[in-house]
Amino acid sequence: MEILLPAIVRGIGTGSTYALLAVSFVVIYRATEVVNFAQPALMILGAYFTSFFVFSVGLPFPVAVVAAMIAMAALGALTERIAMRPLVGQPVFSAAMVTVGVFIVLTMVANRLIGPDILTVGDPWGLERVEIGGFRFFQVDLARTVLALGAIGIVGFVLKQSRVGLAMRATSLDQETALAQGVNVGRMFSLAWALSAALAALAGMLIGTGAGGVEATTALVALKALPVIILGGIDSIQGSVIAGLFIGVVESLARAYQPEYAPWLGANFDIIVPYLILIVSLMVRPYGLFGTPEVQRV
Amino acid sequence: MSRTPRSLRRGRPELYSDYASDQAIWNTPAKRISTLLILIAATSLPWFLNRDLMGLATLVVVYAISGIGLNLISGYAGQISLGHALFMGIGAYTAALLGGTETNLVRGHELDVLIWLPMAGLVPALFGWLVAPIAARVRGLYLAILTLGLLFVGEHILKEMKWLTGGTGVGRRPAGTDLLGFEIYARRTVLGTELPSIASFYLFSLLILVVLAVLARNVARTRQGRAFSAVRDRDIAAEVMGVPLLRTKRLAFTLSSFYAGVGGALLTIVFGFTTPERWNLLLSIDFLAVVLIGGAATITGPIIGAAFVVLMPRFIETFAGSLPFISSTVGGSGILNVFQLQRLLFGAMIVLFLVLEPRGLFGVWIRVRNYFKAWPFSY
């Protein structure tokens, strides 16, 4: 229990961050059927902006987080307008490759802004612990869980209940029909990107909290959302949450136990655990736990 | 085979009276002549370029080999693979194991080029053959994500196999270049000019590129090549028409991995040293850029694309010095340093080509050619 419980709590903490990232992928996928490979760069820029607003502008932390999310939402919408909009109607592969190009450009921007330093985002949690029921947990894990799941809940609620959410779901169902019903499809694309970038920014901030901080290379962490969306189903928010928590916990358990019980698997084995889950999941159930199987017509 | 009389063919380069000459690789005199001229020019490069530029030229040739491989699977067969770098790595380490020297850290058997070079292709091809059934289960972006997963897992395994790769940050030296007692990588004087040591290796790689490029072009023209295109354009329709999906995808994976392995093995020799973390996602993206910028589903495309991807950073490095806001060193005072500018433009190029000219540089050439073909008319 000395190792198990903290490992699980830490797993839930990182897992909710993965879930949040996964939801940011899902939002874009549902609107445009594109897996956005630029998401890691958006995440890292989100962490940078949070840090920037806290330390350079001097905003209080919660305001800085919101400001960073708004800034990233604007950047996301701008990216969509410049790079993605011309590709509507083109093969999905082209659009996905464009996001790879955007990833390279934005990562370079992040690299330039962050430089060789390790950023802290100025969070109030740091390395403090809180005691619940005789066990001591890192505050940061609790903060991650609450904030990430809260944000996902809000997004889910908005998509389900609001008028805009309805329009977004209509767009993802069939763009042309949505257009015919008076939905501004282009605006929905921008909105999806903005929402997704804001979520990625929040996730970037959460990744940067606690002990680690954020470097330019931390961006690759966001790729762990790919196993999550595959396991959960690429168009399911509910699936993202469950798969995110699952992968986070499994990864954390692997980090806690693998060096002791299976050292032959090598150093840093926990990093590739999500990808092993990804491969198995694709082989067993390609559309994930909650995804919609793709129907094909000749 | 009945041929059109020479008198009729004169002035009508595109008059074909039989299928074979219509489908020939070099079906017009212009193509024959230009290919010949390009070959002569490429062969004579060592006599004009210095050591540094020869290294770049060799890199272009080696990138082209792997690029053609990726184009077979992603361009012709439409299966997007982000795992290309892994297959290149497998090829590189097969070559290093068979042809490299033994040290107290890594194993090596010091075999001949004639043995390790084919093996560097065949071993990755075997891996490709084994992975294909898994990969054939999923399509489109799911495949891209699957191959990404394979890449990460493979990278981990390579890092852990220290007897083979040397381990993270340590690395190992590549295979030796002894071809039947003839040392390929050596300084020698030919036709009165002292050539840099990389020159003969360049010529060797060029020879392999030409052989593999012609082979790939021929595969693309056969029944299998047409099956690739059918699978790419609509896999279910292809299956309905009797194209076996698994077999076709498996062949595409196997072939592409063969090319990747050969390219990877030669690449380590150009670099002279390799660490397991070199075969990562960024390298895979480099090769996707080679295919996309060059032109998907062509053979000339990846060669042009390889030249573009390899030479563009150098071009920027050379000319960035005259731009005031670019600093030439890391940590300099400019808005961007050269390395950042290179990556920035690289990403921007991928976006620009996909948005403006999805057929890549080869498509640009087609446009130019068609303009002059129809000149002075607009179509």
Defining traits:
heterodimer; A: 298 residues; mainly alpha; two-stranded antiparallel sheet; 68% helix; globular; B: 379 residues; two-stranded antiparallel ribbon; 6 strands; 4% strand
Strand order of the largest sheet of chain A: 1-2
- Structural classification of chain A: mainly alpha
What class do helices, strands and sheet pairing of chain B give?
Answer: mainly alpha
Determine the most extensive contact between two protein chains.
Answer: A-B, 49 and 43 residues
Average pLDDT value of chain A?
87
Q: What's the β-strand tally of chain B?
A: 6
User: Spans of chain A with pLDDT under 50 lasting ≥5 residues?
Assistant: none
Task: Characterize the overall form of chain A.
Answer: globular
Mean pLDDT of chain B: 87
Q: Give the H and E element order of chain B.
A: HHHHHHHHEEEEHHHHHHEEHH
How is the largest sheet of chain B built, in terms of strand order?
A: 1-2
Counted by DSSP, the helix tally of chain A is 11
Radius of gyration of chain A: 19 Å
Helix content of chain A: 55-70%
Radius of gyration of chain B (CA) equals 22 Å
Q: What is the straight-line distance between the termini of chain A?
A: 55 Å
The backbone outline of chain B, from C-alpha atoms, is: globular
Are there runs of chain B of 5+ residues with pLDDT below 50, and where? none
Main pleated-sheet profile of chain A = 2 strands, antiparallel
What's the main sheet of chain B like? 2 strands, antiparallel
The total count of helices of chain B amounts to: 16
How would you describe what is shown here?
The complex is a heterodimer of chains A (298) and B (379). Chain A is mainly α and 298 residues long. Helix content of chain A is 68%, strand content 3%. Chain A is built from eleven helices and two strands, in the order ααααββααααααα. A two-stranded antiparallel sheet of chain A has the order 1-2. In chain A, helix 1 packs parallel to helix 5, helix 2 (39-57) runs parallel beside helix 4 (92-114) and helix 2 packs across helix 8 (185-208). Chain A is globular and about 60 Å long. The model of chain A has no long low-confidence stretch (mean pLDDT 87). Chain B has 379 residues and is mainly alpha-helical. Helix content of chain B is 67%, strand content 4%. Chain B has 16 helices and six strands. Chain B has helices spanning 6-9, 19-23, 29-44, 51-76, 84-99, 113-135, 140-160, 162-165, 197-221, 223-233, 235-240, 245-271, 281-294, 300-320, 338-356, 360-374; strands at residues 178-179, 182-183, 188-190, 193-195, 326-327, 336-337. In chain B, the strands form three sheets. Chain B has a two-stranded antiparallel sheet. Chain B has a two-stranded antiparallel ribbon with strand order 3-4. The radius of gyration of chain B is 22 Å and the shape is globular. The mean pLDDT of chain B is 87. Chains A and B meet through helix 4, helix 9 and helix 11 of A and helix 7, helix 11, helix 13 and helix 15 of B.
